[in-house]
Design brief:
326 residues, alpha/beta, Metallo-beta-lactamase, Chain A, seven-stranded mixed beta sheet, six-stranded mixed beta sheet
């Protein structure tokens, strides 16, 4: 087994360099409580600016798994972080990652991009709003998301109105109202830009949801495309088009075959199989494909990678784990 693993790692080094090697070493064992060290390389002479790092905060699904928290990831560019989705545990996962990436300290979690409003992707929104406030976030939380996001944020404020009142009017010396979420409801296209990153929303198809998005992050040194939850969407392949990293949800095709017909119909409309993802990745041609939101259906992480490869995708692919960085 170790001989084949060493051969795989040597191949990954040739394809993608030492950064992916470190990620593969972590994914070969139990999940670490630290992100991989490879993503913390200092800027090299001649670099245009701060390095861009992808940190997986949660790779889970609605199925409770103590090793995989709710869907969330971060694009870290120097001292700034840009979150995608807010699954359960997002702030505590970010706090764990902040040991290596200070931009993920709770007070610095200031920007959030939601792919859609399923509960597993939004259960951490109150946590981001209020825990960030308690950690002295200097601004309200800025949120970009589909129609319905503003109503959700208002309802969260209403649900926690007693907490807000006691913290502001009681003995706790709270003086700001930075628990609030400033929401921007979006359509496909450019949704955000600053001096570090340009963010484009990508329309995808996620079953019955009227609006769901992936995101493309363009920085000085990397292009990272995040699928969100989606059935196969050609828009993602076009958005990637040779991107550095494609982060994509997936389910096991072998496990899918064992499901009941109603559940097969559901997953076919809402998600992407390993076979479908292999075809999409061949169109997208990412330098690295990272699998998240894995619906295993009895398969293993190694099985998912094997299924993608057997379906004809030969590029670098990793089944992501919480707190890995790329």
């Amino acid at each position: 087994m170790w001989r084949s693993m060493r051969a795989r790692l040597r191949s990954l080094v040739r394809l993608t360099g030492l950064g992916l090697l470190a990620a593969a070493l972590v994914s070969a064992g139990e999940p670490s409580e630290q992100p991989t060290a490879a993503a913390d390389e200092p800027a090299r002479p001649g670099d245009a600016g701060p390095r861009t790092v992808l940190v997986l905060l949660g790779t889970g699904t609605p199925v409770p798994d103590p090793k995989r928290w709710g869907p969330a990831l971060a694009i870290v560019v120097g001292d700034r972080s840009y979150l995608v989705d807010a699954g359960s545990g997002v702030v505590r996962r970010a706090a764990a990652a902040a040991r290596r990436h200070p931009a993920l300290q709770p007070s610095k979690l200031q920007r959030l991009f939601l792919t859609h409003l399923h509960s597993d992707h939004t259960l951490g929104l109150p946590d981001l709003m209020f825990t960030g406030w308690l950690a002295s976030r200097p601004t309200p939380l800025a949120v970009w998301g589909p129609p319905g996001t503003a109503a959700m944020a208002r309802q969260i404020e209403a649900a926690w109105q007693d907490d807000i009142r006691v913290r502001i009017e009681g003995l706790e010396p709270r003086t700001t109202r930075n628990y609030r979420a400033v929401v921007h409801e979006i359509e496909a296209g450019r949704v955000y830009e600053d001096d570090r990153v340009r963010v484009d929303a990508i329309a995808v198809s996620h079953g019955s949801w009227p609006a769901a998005f992936g995101y493309r992050f363009q920085t000085a040194d990397r292009t990272i495309v995040v699928s969100g939850d989606t059935r196969p969407s050609e828009s993602l392949a076009k958005a990637c088009d040779g991107c550095d990293v494609l982060v994509h949800e997936v389910y096991s095709a072998a496990g899918f075959a064992r499901l009941s017909k109603p559940w097969q119909a559901y997953h076919r409309a809402f998600h992407t199989s390993t076979l479908e993802l292999a075809a999409l990745a061949n169109q997208a041609r990412p330098k690295l494909l990272v699998l998240v939101h894995q619906l295993f259906f009895g398969a293993t992480a190694a099985d998912l990678v094997r299924e993608v490869r057997e379906a004809g995708y030969a590029g670098p692919v990793v089944s992501g784990r919480d707190l890995e960085a790329f």
